[in-house]
Amino acid sequence: MWARTEWRIVKWMIENLFSAKVQAAAPLFVRVILMAHTEIVSPKLLIVKKFGGTSVGTPERICAVAQLIANSLSQGNQVVAVVSAMAGETNRLVGLAHAIHSMPWGLEYDMLLAAGEQQSVALLALALKSIGVKAEPLLAHQVGIRTDSLYSKARIKNIDTEKLRRFLEEGTVPVIAGFQGVDETDHITTLGRGGSDTSAVALAAALGADDCEIYTDVEGIYTTDPRLCPKATKLNEICYEEMIELASLGAKVMQIRSVELAAKYRVPLHVRSSFSNVSGTRIVGETTAMEDILVSGVAADSDCARITLKNLPDATETLVGVFGPIANAGVVVDIIVQNRMEDRTIKVSFTVSEVEARKVKAFIEEELVRVFPQLEVEMELGLGKVSVVGVGMRNHPGVAAKAFAVLADIGVAISLIATSEIKISMVVTRSALRKCVERLHEAFGLNEKENPIKPPPGDLLEHHSTMS
Questions:
Q1: Parallel/antiparallel/unpaired status of strands 297-313 and 376-389
Q2: Which tens digits make up the pLDDT trace of 217-275?
Q3: What is the pTM of this model?
Q4: Does residue 215 register a pLDDT over 90?
Q5: How far is CA 318 from CA 99, 252, 283, 311, 338, in A?
Q6: Which range of residues forms the domain containing residue 198?
Q7: Same domain, residue pair 61 and 19
Q8: Distance from C-alpha of 353 to C-alpha of 330, rounded to nearest angstrom
Q9: For residue 382, what is the enclosing H or E element?
Q10: Average pLDDT of 417-422?
């Protein structure tokens, strides 16, 4: 059977390349396709809809989500629903774990955190059935979402879609628990913060879905976080590469791994609000017109800490000896800076999330000191990272100089800097983060866009540990 895309091409060719007279004189098989194109050329769309914690945060919101799914079904679409835990539920489970164990990592921790999504899928399936929609609540092991065994940061290896396709053909909505998988030993694993996004994109890729809609509490992707800058505006579209950078630099709307997966498999992404009918933001492949925009957004990350290692030997194998074990421990390191000292030692500074900083420091003091006996370890908390991002930076010089000048003008010291073709990141004190975002947003012309939006509730500078 032809794929949906191939049928759409046939339909376009018939309707656009042939006049009415030519169509009327066309062979019988062409006229049959024309008469039946509603049935054949325009088949049902397969849409994966992911709903975040705020979207399913109360029984009333769960019922609203059920109606949203029902509306899509009434248009002839097939729907796969992926849900996060109810807002606040994962944090509650995290608190329980820490009340019992100071460092509750491992399979028990993942099993506990995955319980939040089990609650959500059951409630959404009940809500769908209450309005006459057939639904099947499914956990990761029931779907066949297989991952590696890196607990709390597991990566999806493969998905068995046979059961899902059978449900879809029967007219049943699979309601799938996001954020979780199972490893080779059938232990429950979790995919890390924002992991439900990755679940949705992976399912969309495996099923060959026509669209992957990410429903959240905001209306799309903005030029910056509106809680930091009230003049932030919604983008109609953004390319995968820019979104990957923004997600990696602190934008909370999408998990970076989910966007990387979407880019790899060219999964169409649509970020939108579950509380309004606004069209949202499309995440697409890069177009030539995008290069005309110097900076597309300003990202802020308030969860940043710096680890500094002193008295390391100035040898070629030193960095391997430091960062190899850290990587094997599953720690994601961001910015790295190395300095050679006058006493022929080297000093290395790197940033990690504040959540992991103490864990990393304890690991270094326990493990690496055995290899480097003279090692001194320092940790600095209370930092933030502000970044400017845009594919137009590839062809326009002077962006870094302008960004540095803006921060100098407001008296903010930069402690670390990292760059790529389309981004410049600067580590500053967390207390200065809001001011940096506002001034950079203005300096790069992002305030000039229309329709500034009202900031959603909450403060980005508060520490959040929501993971799903």
A1: antiparallel
A2: 889 999 998 888 989 999 999 999 999 988 888 777 888 899 999 999 999 999 999 99
A3: 0.76
A4: yes
A5: 38, 35, 41, 11, 11
A6: 46-290
A7: no
A8: 13
A9: strand 376-389
A10: 91
Q: 405 and 318 in one domain?
A: yes
In angstroms, the Cα distances linking 3 to 75, 207, 209 are: 20, 12, 11
**Cα–Cα distance, 111 to 151 (Å, whole number):** 10
User: Is residue 384 within 8 Å of 300, Cβ to Cβ?
Assistant: yes
175 and 94, same domain (yes or no) = yes
Residues 378, 267: one domain?
no
pLDDT in tens, 334-349: 999 999 999 999 999 9
Count of domains for the chain: 3
- Separation between Cα atoms, residue 384 and residue 50, nearest integer Å: 29
Give every strand in the sheet of 145-147, ordered side by side. Answer: 156-159, 145-147, 180-182, 188-190
- φ, ψ of residue 168 to 5 degrees: the values are -65, -40
Which are the contacts of 13, defined by CB distance < 8 A and separation ≥ 6?
Answer: none
Residue 139 has pLDDT above 50, yes or no: yes
Q: Strands of 297-313's sheet, edge to edge?
A: 336-340, 345-352, 297-313, 376-389, 423-429, 416-420
Is residue 11 domain-shared with residue 75, that is, in the same domain? no
Q: How many whole angstroms separate alpha carbon 180 and alpha carbon 178?
A: 6
Please name the residues in contact with 108: beta carbons below 8 A apart, sequence gap of 6 or more.
none
Measured CA to CA, the distance from residue 97 to residue 114 in angstroms comes to 13
What pLDDT score was predicted for residue 32? 52
What does each C-alpha distance from 53 to 33, 69, 215, 217 come to in angstroms? 44, 16, 10, 9
Asked if residues 212 and 267 have their Cβ atoms less than 8 Å apart, the reply is yes
